[in-house]
Each structure stands twice: as C-alpha cells, then as structure tokens.
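hey can u check if this looks right to u? its 403 residues, i copy pasted from the old doc so theres a chance i mangled smth
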Amino acid sequence: MNERTRRYVHAKFREYYMHAELKLPVDLWMREWGFIHFDQYYPEKVVMRRHKAFNTHIELMNYIREHAPAHAFHSAAIYKYPDAPMGRKEWLGADLIFDLDADHVVSEAELPGYSHEELLRLVKRETEKLIDFLLDDFGFQEDQLELVFSGSRGYHIHITDERVRQLGSRERREIIDYLTATGLELSPESFLRSTADGYLKLVAEGWGRRLFKGMVEILHELAELEEEVAIERIRKASGMDKRQAKEVIRIANDRTVMNRIERGEIPRFSRLPAIWAGIVRLVTGTVRVESGDRPDEPVTSDIKRLIRLPTSLHGKSSLEVKPLRVDAIADFEPLNDAVVFGDSEVEVQGVRKSAIKLKDERYRLDEGETASLPEYAALYFLCRGLAELSLTPSASETHSPSL
C-alpha cells in the first residue's frame, strides 16, 4: 500500500467512524484496548498500540474518531487496572470467546484453491455447528451468545455470562477438548446399544447427537455423488479401504436402511467397528478454534486475549466487524451485509490478478489493469493489497477532506 493509497483509505475509515454507532462491550472502562493505526509504517510493519483504557463511552469514541484505526480491539478480560503493564493489571475475569477462521477449516496448502466466498461459506457452516454445541451441550441461551462476523474470513462468539467469567485457562481448555473430541471415547460401544431386532440404537446425547447428525448428513451427501468420487472422498477423509468405502455407499443408497438410521438405529454389520471409526473421523474435527501467538494456546483458553471490536472496520478488507443475532446467521451474507461504503466511482490499478463478489456483483482486476470501481469494491481491493489508487484522482478522492 503506497502513501497515497494509505491516506485515501484512512480518510474513508475516518468518514465511517465519524457517523458510526459503535457497539461497545459492557464494562468498557475495565477493558484493555488495542489499536493498529494507519501510520507511516502500515501495512508493511504492523504496530499494536495496546494497554490503553478509557473511562467513558465519549472518551473512547473521541479516540476512535480522531485516529480512525485500521484495526480496533478490546480485551476479553476485565481488569482492575486495564492500562497497567500485563503483570500489574489485576485480572478480574474474562468473557468466553470462540474464534473460527478459514485457515482452520482448510489447510494452508489448500487455501489458494478457494475463493473468499467459498471460504466464508465453509466457516459459516462450522460456526453453525459450534452454535448448536453451545446451545445443546452447554445449555447456553441464544441471548447469551454474541455472534460477530470478523470482517474478514471468520466469526467470533462472545459469551459474557457471569458464570463463565471466572473460568481459568484450564477449564477453558477442557471446553476446547470437548468440542474437538480430544481424549473422548468415541468407539461404537460408547454410543450404540443393542436392540431386539438386530439393530443398534445410537445414544443421541452430547457427542452422540453430533455424530448422529453428522453421520446422516454425510450419508445423504455421499448418496448424491458418483460412486468413484464418493469412494475417494471417504478414503481421503477417513482412511477406510475401498471395500469399506463401498459398504458405506451401499448404506447411503439404501432407502430402507437410511430410514432406520434417521431414527437412530444403526445396522449391525460385520465391519461396523472399522466403518464406525471411519465415520467418526469424517464427522469429528469440524469445530476448530483459532490458535493465537502460541500454537498451543487457543483464543478460548487465553484469558487475556484481545478480540476485534464489533462494528469497527477490518483494515484488511474494509468490511464491518458485524454483530448479528444467532438466529440470523443462516441468511447472513458477509460480502453483502458487512459492506458499509458507498458506490461512487474510484479509479484503481491492479497489483495482481484478483476477483471478489460484493453486493451480488463480481469484480475482477488483472495485474496492471486500471479500472473504475464502486467505492466499496475499490476499498476492498485496496485494503487487501490487491490494488493501488490510479495516478488520476477520482471524484471520490477529490472531495475527501483529509487528502
């Protein structure tokens, strides 16, 4: 991002913050705050300005409007002295935070093969599964979950319930272990009980319910695939051999057997242990929690973590870090609903070949290509480092008061 582009993006962020109604956390005066500014080093060198505290809503809003940061964060924790060095803050508790991101659904090597839109669909699906777990297995109510689109490729879930605030890192780690089935016994004996008619009854509680729902969903998906494609998917994901994979496909295509399975009744076939193990591998591992600075310390167990401020802007996309109701996630379209900028024309030049679909329109840029784009699309490409402002100022730039 060159200097001219940086100044333009900063000016647009300032316009947003001058009029935005930000959603601020409870006990904001007890939170540590951190910001990444559009300084002379950004984005090549990212400097986090943290250990800040604000006594009032007005004080915080004045700071954000003055600086118009590229990224804004607050602590999940509450402290007696939030602006003190970490060792002297005096921790009083912390919200329970879950952070799901695309690079924990798709491996780093596979990421280039997915579009931004495809990654967002995958992450939304995993977020919905996590929400089901929090509601069904942990007993939280929908109004206790604060769901937030991260502004980039994932979702955050904040749980501010007083009952979880005093949980330490160890207890939070146990929650993650449960969600990821770490150390859990998932053998068929753990979840299947004999019946008089030769079938086995699946105990649909906790992980049993997750395995049941996942099993039914996967079997229906396999039934829609060509046999060789289905076999390849099963073998790649589960480690089954070809004969076992074919047995799973036969079950998926047998409507009578599937009707029994949908009622929680599992056929007692000879290769059940091996096939069950394969299905467990297919179903488990779908809820992943983002690792922080230390790979073995996920966000959820880090009781001093900073998390993005809902309703702020994400400096690498220009999209809103958008809060939404839990029951609205199915219909939420991030690349439509988190777009906040207007459609005045801005002329940009592509840095490398790229494409994105925003507000139901697809925009493409080739390396070196000059194009006139709606402001919201131009800002996306600029923030992502995919384009720079063209050498000819646009009307949008000319009327920007900060340039």
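The first strand starts at residue 33 and ends at 36.
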